Amino acid sequence: MNDHHAVFQATPLTRRKQCSEVIAMVVFLLMTSLIVLPLLLIVGYLVYQAWPILSLDFLLTSPKHGMRAGGIWSPLLGTVYLVVLSLVIATPIGVLAAVFLNEYARDNWFTRIVNLAVINLAGVPSIVHALFGLGAFVLFAGLGKSILAASLTLAIMTLPVIIASTNEALAAVPMAFREACWNVGATRWQTIRHIVLPNSMSGILTGVILQVSRAAGETAPIMFTGAVFFKAIREGHLFAYGLFDQCMALSMHLFTISTQVPDVPKALPYGIAVVLLSTVLAVNALAIIVRVYLRSRKKW
Amino acid sequence: MLIRRRWEALTEVAIELLIRLCGISAILFVFGIFFFVFREGSAFLFHGFKFLEFFGSTEWYPTSQSHVRYGVLALIAGTASVTVLAMLIAVPFGIGAAIFISEFCGSRLKETLKISIEMLAAIPSVVWGFIGLTLMNPLIMKLFGAPIGLNVLNGGLILALMSLPIIVSVGEDALKAVPDSYREAALALGVTRWQLVYRVLLPAAKNGLLAAVLLGVGRAVGETMAVLMATGHAVKIPASLLDSVRTLTATIAAELGEAPVHSEHYQVLFIIGILLFMITFVVNLTAYLFVRGIRGK
User: Fold this and answer.
1) Closest among A280, A218, A210, A211 to A255, alpha carbons compared
2) Does any CB of chain B come closer than 8 Å to the CB of residue A249?
3) Do B100 and A32 touch (CB under 8 A)?
């Protein structure tokens, strides 16, 4: 009865190998779980603590009573201003810089230095960006602590995100597309404008969305360049901040409420954290959806 | 026709100029950052700055009336202690996760895990700091009986989680760059996957993995808000994991608001900024050279 088993009987060596195979698999799986678990735990914990305070009203009223009551309207609006303005500044520069790296630059020492600069720009600590923004925009350029100065600082900080993403997208456009276009007499810029850029839209869009997510969450760079602890604004008014005003920001507000203001209601800082976190995660999810959707439509 | 041609040619030149300008913008910005941070700190750097006291003393009394001292040794120790702890946790786990994602799992799971990493990387540092303050702080007090939970352990754990994504994603890229023929050759000799990882993949992807670790270090050293909120505010060299510390970055963030513009204290904070800039510059440059090393092969 055991005959057919005998044929495939594992030798001790094979068995030991299979065993170590399984152990390896489990060990690495456990290590990987460290990426997934904290994410779920953190989101779950924050949402659980913030639940009582989350409502539409919370989003649409400004902080009141020394920031111990009310909602988060003014910081939310401030963050929108900072993000949109930094996006408007960073996108053209970032996209064109990537076009330079991918379409114009040759593989020489100069290009390598540009690449190195991009990597370093991405690696500069956010607090050093803050010092730079303070020295260059607030003091040297005379913009003062303002939304404009903070947005410029954020724009420079998030530039590498757009450059990297666009660069990757441009590199993925097949060389044959460009050659075909050149052959019908188009100039370099015409080729880029009509062939290369439209075909790499998905990557550019992903970069732009990731820039938004990054800019929305940053605190240190705006702390000394434009964001303030508290500023009263006209309620229910979309254009309540001017370009040279100081503003509140969601990330800064979370820092202020959780470290500088005593006796706040328990759920309030959790509410801010959840709004900030869900905005950033939703924006990132959007980037992933855009990428997957446009990749599936790609024909080459 | 001719006019149109000329017009087109002109646009072409103008646009190419604009693109080249944007192309070198990254270089301009990096120099700009160094220049402006240096400019703000230079007056004190060349007049009255004591190099030995700065690097050799643990006395940081920037606002004292009679006994002003600007020694950043304790701050450097603070940064080093949280960074080392973070790397002790993040490097084995990060590289283990990179190995799992690149070698052990199917494409479906791989996509899910990559998305999860992206999401983890997206969590803003101030939210991490808030987690350290509200979740880890009481937890550490309860588990270790520490008087305060804002310490090296708290900051190190948070920084480990924050630098995991970059270690995993760069590490995975490095493993992906190992040619499949290496794997096939090893498997044909009958190795287990354990041996494959240890004897083939890790040595072959060594440079890329080192770059991943370095980028993680850069991330941890430069992180500001999370350590500002999670490590406490004691300027001293930590004796144990449960001591509070203050990092270089947190010092700038905590004190710049109160230091009067162009005062000595203010300028010293900019000098700390230069120090941070140079540390991350060297770390990133080294990582870049390691990555280029792989590409060169």
Assistant:
1) A218
2) no
3) yes
Tell me how far apart the terminal alpha carbons of chain A are, to the nearest angstrom. Answer: 57
Run of H or E residues at A128: helix A126-133
CB A152 within 8 A of CB A226: no
Q: Are B166 and B214 spatial neighbours (Cβ–Cβ below 8 Å)?
A: no
Of the candidates A167, A161, A170, A168, the residue with the CA atom closest to the CA atom of residue A193: A170
Calculate mean pLDDT across residues B236-264.
90
Structural domain boundaries in chain B: 69-296
* Interface contact flag, A35 B165, Cβ < 8 Å: yes
Residue A215: per-residue pLDDT: 93
Helices A250-259 and A267-297, interaxial angle, to 10°? 150
Q: Which residues pair with B60 in a beta bridge?
A: B70
Global confidence as pTM: 0.91
ipTM associated with this complex: 0.91
pLDDT of residue A297: 76
pLDDT for position A260: 86
Shortest CA distance to B22 belongs to which of A92, A233, A209?
A92
Give the whole-angstrom CA distance, residue A173 versus residue A170. Answer: 6
- Helix (H), strand (E) at residue B81: helix B73-99
Residue B33's region, left for phi above 0, alpha for psi from -120 to 50, else beta, is: alpha
Strands A63-64, B69-70: pairing kind: unpaired
CATH 1.10.3720.10 fits A56-297, yes or no: yes
Distance separating alpha carbons of residues B244 and A91, to the nearest angstrom: 41
| CB-nearest partner of B256 from A159, A224, A281 | A224
> Going by DSSP bridges, is the β-strand pair A69-70/B60-61 parallel, antiparallel, or unpaired?
unpaired
Chain B hits for A160, Cβ within 8 Å: 26
With 0-12 / 13-18 / 19 or more C-beta atoms within 10 angstroms meaning exposed / middle / buried, residue A229 is middle
- Tell me the CATH class for B69-296: mainly alpha
